[in-house]
């Protein structure tokens, strides 16, 4: 089973494993995890580093050649293989699997990859990594995790923020760990170690929150009305197409309705990390009974408005749908739907 980044330090004891795989799309955690592996390698005498970046036309025999080569400069080496968003394919997978059957002594292989889906994670070479090495899978932090992460990073810098200051900082940098790290570094430069309040954060931190449609789904599941509004505003400001937002909300409505009515939802779980499934199941409990099916009707109406097939403002419709799915409808959001179906969501 893949480790979390926070578990990597304990997996870097002496001696190092022959291979470490870091996968995920969150850049700060990926960068820091790879840095920890490199630092541990240096401390344990792996003095030479060979970097190989997989690009179109990459010759996978180069990895086998490096594995067979004897270092001229150091007894121990770190092979730093950067896949990025590339996939090894059949040829690369075979080379990696062969390498991992009999990894060269005095060599550590560090593989960095974008997020791996279920199919990629089932490849023979990945299974070999799990068998003889360490796989760290990185996921974006959930809002509750982000809060704890901010507090810990501030603490490392000697800053003790009060609740309001943490909430403001979270609002301004949510979903963007690189920006958060930079803002905390700035706060540490501007203020001596000790208490930190809202005024200091307000004066120093600019808004750099970054969202994707999964953040909106998280806010909906949590029933967090304020965050729903912030995320939707953020998505609109970043130029995200309303059709993409509608797609995410329609999927959410179908999933909640399916779970609420006791149906199987295997296909709809696709793309939702296991750690995020429990909040979905909890959100589905708001919609027990036949009224859950109205969620799908409301979502379908919003989808029609977004596609120009029904009258209305797309973003208003998406906000209404988000609030209803979150169980926090603040105004009669579905009067058109009520007219169409004779029923009202409340």
Write up what this structure looks like.
α6 packs across α7 (163-173), α10 (213-222) packs across α13 and α14 (292-306) runs antiparallel to α15. The protein has helices spanning 27-43, 61-68, 89-101, 118-121, 124-132, 143-156, 163-173, 177-190, 198-204, 213-222, 225-237, 242-260, 277-284, 292-306, 314-325, 335-341, and strands spanning 19-24, 48-53, 77-84, 107-113, 134-138, 159-161, 194-196. It is α/β, with parallel strands linked by helices and 346 residues long. The strands form two sheets. A five-stranded parallel β-sheet has the order 2-3-4-1-5, sandwiched between helices. A two-stranded parallel sheet has the order 6-7. The model has no long low-confidence stretch (mean pLDDT 85). One of its GO terms (molecular function) is DNA-directed DNA polymerase activity. It catalyses: DNA(n) + a 2'-deoxyribonucleoside 5'-triphosphate = DNA(n+1) + diphosphate.
């Amino acid at each position: 089973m893949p480790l979390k980044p926070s578990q990597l330090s304990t997996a870097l004891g002496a001696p190092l494993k022959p291979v470490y795989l870091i996968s995920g799309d969150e850049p700060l955690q990926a960068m820091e995890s790879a840095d920890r592996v490199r630092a541990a390698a240096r401390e344990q005498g792996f003095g030479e580093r060979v970097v190989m970046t997989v690009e179109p036309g990459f010759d996978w025999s180069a990895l086998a050649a490096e594995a067979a080569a004897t270092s001229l400069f150091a007894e121990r080496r770190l092979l730093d293989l950067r896949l990025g968003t590339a996939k090894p394919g059949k040829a690369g997978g075979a080379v990696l699997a062969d390498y991992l059957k009999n990894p060269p002594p005095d060599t550590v292989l560090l593989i960095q990859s974008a997020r791996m889906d279920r199919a990629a994670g089932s490849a023979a070479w990945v299974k070999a990594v799990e068998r003889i090495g360490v796989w760290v899978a990185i996921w974006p932090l959930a809002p509750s995790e982000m809060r704890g992460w901010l507090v810990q990073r501030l603490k490392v810098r000697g800053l003790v923020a009060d609740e309001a200051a943490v909430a403001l900082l979270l609002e301004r940098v949510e979903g963007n760990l690189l920006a958060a790290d930079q803002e905390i570094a700035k706060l540490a430069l501007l203020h001596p170690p000790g208490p930190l309040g809202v005024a200091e954060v307000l004066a120093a931190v600019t808004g750099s929150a970054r969202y994707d449609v999964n953040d909106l789904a998280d806010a909906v599941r949590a029933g967090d009305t304020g965050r729903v509004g912030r995320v939707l505003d953020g998505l609109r400001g970043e130029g995200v197409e309303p059709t993409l937002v509608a797609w995410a909300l329609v999927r959410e409505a179908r999933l909640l309705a399916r779970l609420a009515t006791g149906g199987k939802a295997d296909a709809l779980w696709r793309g939702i990390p296991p750690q995020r499934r429990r909040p979905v199941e909890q959100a589905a409990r708001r919609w027990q009974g036949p009224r859950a099916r109205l969620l799908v009707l409301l979502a379908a109406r919003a989808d029609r408005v977004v596609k120009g097939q029904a009258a209305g403002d797309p973003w208003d419709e998406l906000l209404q749908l988000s609030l209803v799915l979150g169980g926090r409808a603040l105004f009669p959001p579905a009067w058109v739907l009520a007219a169409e179906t004779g029923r009202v969501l409340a």
